[in-house]
Amino acid sequence: MTERQWIWINVGNIIAFLMFVLLSLSTEGQRAIVVLTETIGVLALVFAIITLIYGKAEFKWFAVCGIACLAPWVVFAIGYETGITATTNYYHLGFMLFYIVMIASIVFLKISFQKLHDEFKLIPVFLLFFHAILLIYIMVIHIWWLLPF
Question: Which of 25, 70, 139, 149 is most buried, by the most CB atoms less than 10 A from its CB?
């Protein structure tokens, strides 16, 4: 396959993942939709890693952009599936890991914005919007769990 085809596969996978994230949020986290979202996210991550391995120059930065988009969602999904709640021990470690991964992914999205050209230049900016949704959600949960009642 050509590099352009790999890029469009990555774009399609990331868009499908983000649409299923919005769908799972709007259906209040029904289990079937959440599983479909996780499956599409894993496929998108696998295709981004394959593109990173076999791609060249500019296309590698697009794969880095895709991986940077999916990394905080992976940390969130691991926390969700392992059942981290306010009553579990050491739940602060999960938050710290999430915040570190989120900062690193924002840095990589900024770098990929500078390295990409043409029609792909706005994709990292678009992905930052979904990072903001996840970051606000996690910060609200973190603050809620720290309240003394």
Answer: 70
